[in-house]
Amino acid sequence: MTMSTRTRIARLRTLALTGITTTGAAAVALTLMPANAQAAEAKVPAHSVVTASSKGSSVGKSGSTGNLDAWIKQSLQIMKAKGIPGSYEGLKRNIMRESGGNPSAQNNWDVNAKQGTPSKGLLQVIDPTFNAYHVAGTAKSVTDPVANITAAANYAAHRYGSIDKVNSAY
């Protein structure tokens, strides 16, 4: 694939949503799932795309309040202590692609949602994956920002070697 083809594909997959650049249907549909699960690709209806504010969010769930920078840094501390590889840049890149930094983002249209397990949170994790890759010391809530980031990074480490190696939909 030539560089110009890659550039064209990247441009086609990029949408501007409330001042945030996020990728299109494939990334919006990203669902972290156990390795043996399969997901069908689906077309994204324009009205179902989740938008997010470009400012850092604050939430009151599970005691996690703060902003994206703080959540990533908290997660990195836990990841380091547990031996889970990943960098700030890798986490932030994937978060911005998946949820635009919105910890309340939820995919309600893809195959997983239709089967009753929508993707949730900053890194769009489904409940079975969150439960399988939950990291002790984080909240037991898939929508808790730090727990979501850390579980997703743990999954990515097992599946790909590191969240840093994930540059597109899984």
Strand order of the largest sheet: 1-2
Question: How many strands?
Answer: 4
Secondary-structure element string: HEEHHHEHEHH
Mean pLDDT across every amino acid position: 73
Instruction: Provide the low-confidence segments as ranges.
Output: 1-64
- Separation of the first and last Cα atoms: 20 Å
What is the count of helical runs?
Answer: 7
Largest sheet: 2 strands, antiparallel
Helix coverage percent: 40-55%
- % residues in beta strands: 5-15%
Q: TL;DR?
A:
It contains seven helices and four strands.
Key features?
170 residues; mainly alpha; two-stranded antiparallel ribbon; two-stranded antiparallel sheet; 4 strands; 40% helix; disordered N terminus
Q: What does this protein look like?
A:
By secondary structure, the chain is mainly alpha-helical. 40% of the residues lie in helices and 7% in strands. The protein has 7 helices and 4 strands. The protein has helices at 3-13, 25-28, 68-82, 88-98, 111-114, 127-133, 145-160, and strands spanning 14-17, 20-23, 106-107, 119-120. The strands form 2 sheets. The protein has a two-stranded antiparallel sheet with strand order 1-2. It has a two-stranded antiparallel sheet with strand order 3-4. Residues 1-64 have low confidence and may be disordered.
